[in-house]
Amino acid sequence: MKTPLNTLSDWLAHCEQLHPKNIDMGLERVRTVAERMQIRFDCPVITVAGTNGKGSTCAMLEAILLQAGYRTGVYTSPHLVRFEERLRLNGESVDATKLVASFAGVERARGLNEAEISLTYFEFSTLAILDVMAHSKLDVVILEVGLGGRLDAVNIIEPDCAVITSVDLDHMEFLGADRESIGYEKAGIMRTGRPVVVSDPMPPQSVLDRALEVGADLWRFGVDFNVSGDKQQWGWAGRGRRYSGLAYPALRGANQLVNAAGVLATLAALRDRLPITAQAVRNGLAFVELPGRFQIIPGEPTLVLDVAHNPHSVAALTANLDAMSYFPTTHAVFGAMADKDLAAMLVKINPLIDKWYFTDLPTPRAESADGLLVKWQAQNKRKEATACAYPDPQQALQAAINAADPTDRIVVFGSFYTVGGILKDGLPRLHAKHMPNI
Questions:
Q1: How confident is the model at residue 77, as a pLDDT?
Q2: Smaller CB count within 10 Å for the chain: N or C?
Q3: Which residues pair with 164 in a beta bridge?
Q4: Contact status, residue 293 vs residue 307, Cβ threshold 8 Å
Q5: What pLDDT score was predicted for residue 438?
Q6: How far, in Å, CA of 294 to CA of 253, rounded?
Q7: How buried is residue 237: exposed, middle or buried, by Cβ count under 10 Å (0-12/13-18/19+)?
Q8: In the prediction, which pLDDT does 170 show?
Q9: Cα 292–Cα 294–Cα 296 angle in degrees, nearest 5
Q10: In the predicted model, is pLDDT for residue 116 greater than 90?
Q11: Is the confidence at residue 98, as pLDDT, over 90?
Q12: 182: pLDDT strictly greater than 50
């Protein structure tokens, strides 16, 4: 190696420069490197796939299992601000020095036998994270699929329980043009004889067919487990287990109840290996945190952060915003990738937004702020609505703050880069300059 790689930033830059060409999309390359590194787990592994709700599901599983006293490892992607967020050990982001050692281990392993194995950025970093987890003496491992499922790097690890959250249209250039094709890819994490929890209330038939084909133990929302409740509390009932009088999850949004139902089904399916108490469930759901998922930050004006970046998640965000109390004006800071269905996202939420602040993002994959502005102008029919373009999320947010009254709200949504750009210097606390006359 020509240049010493001593820091995490060095290794991430190295991975980004690899750019393997004509690489096969199978998992044999990744599996071979993992075998050379002797990556294996002697504890239960939960793998979570889906279009939306994966991060929330992982966070709730983690919170409950921590409350039950288990040593947890959680791998999620992408990150908001720092790469180390992708791996949480016992609820805390991993120390960068551990990652550096494992990145070096991946580099050594892929270069053995004088035949270097090509890895993508995601495959390389996934192997490094799995290596750290394998050496951390964990009681339970939770793996979030990055893209799809069948060909995702985490799928080299055999899950003891698979979870499939919502299935909707996203990453169609890789996963297929419809829900059935996408569902088939996500169903690739299922294993014969092992439980698979499907928390999507209306899953594609391909998911159900795949469970039957491989002989997985299917736990289906509305069939094998269900929820009930009122405005104050809710209950869950499944195979041989029931919870009643539960407080709603600390993660806000109506969609979180469906995710929580899948979480409790997962824990019920693994109760012989990971027994938990009802109190651990209550405490875990009450204390769970996950930045950027309909995260409401009190202040003047109110700030809402959400990584909704496809039509399905933007529809959920719209419903959640509509359920909030009255705000005279809603300002929106928005930046997203160019390959998303941007028109569908804008049309869903546009009726709620009075002032738009479109932003550039620090990645070539992103649509430009000017491009977003043009797309919005092409469909906007609200004469009173306004929009401008800005070079980065922080400048867009500052413009919104300058224009907002204390009783307004500002919504920052779209790509992880958008929300991460707001959080990079810490959690903002807004104090509007426009104070009402007394």
A1: 93
A2: C
A3: 49, 198
A4: yes
A5: 42
A6: 7
A7: middle
A8: 59
A9: 95
A10: no
A11: yes
A12: yes
Are the beta carbons of 285 and 252 closer than 8 angstroms? no
Report pLDDT for 349.
Answer: 95
Q: What is the pLDDT of residue 22?
A: 63
In one-letter notation, the amino acid at residue 82 is R
Single-letter residue type at 102: S
> Please, are residues 51 and 170 in contact by the beta-carbon 8 Å criterion?
yes
| Token couple for 177 | 């043009």
Token code pair at residue 198: 């499907």
Give me the sheet containing 72-75, strands edge to edge. Answer: 92-93, 87-89, 72-75, 140-144, 45-49, 161-164, 195-198, 217-220
* Residue 16: per-residue pLDDT: 86
Q: Please compute the mean of the pLDDT values over residues 187-194 and round it to a whole number.
A: 96
Taking a C-beta distance cutoff of 8 angstroms, is the pair 97, 115 a contact? no
Identity (one letter) of the amino acid at 157? I
Task: Give the pLDDT mean for 394-408.
Answer: 95
Per-residue tokens: 387: 């929009």
Handedness of CA 426, 404, 414, 322 (dihedral sign): positive
Q: Where are the alpha helices (DSSP H) in 157-277?
A: 172-175, 179-186, 205-214, 255-269
Gyration radius of the chain over CA positions:
22
Residue 236, beta-bridge partner list: 227, 243
pLDDT digits (tens, 9 = 90+) for 276-313: 999 999 999 999 999 999 999 988 999 999 999 899 89
Instruction: Read off the pTM.
Output: 0.92
Length of the chain: 438
Residues 6+ apart with CB under 8 A from 249: 60, 256, 257, 259, 260, 285, 288
DSSP per-residue codes, 162-179: EEE----S-SHHHH-SSH
Tokens of 38: 């002797």
| Residues near 304 by beta carbon (within 8 Å), at least 6 away in sequence | 294, 295, 296, 297, 321, 409, 410, 411, 412, 413
DSSP β-bridge partners for residue 300: 431
Work out whether strand 234-238 and strand 225-229 pair parallel, antiparallel, or are unpaired: antiparallel
Q: Which residue, chain included where needed, has tokens 């299935």? A: 167
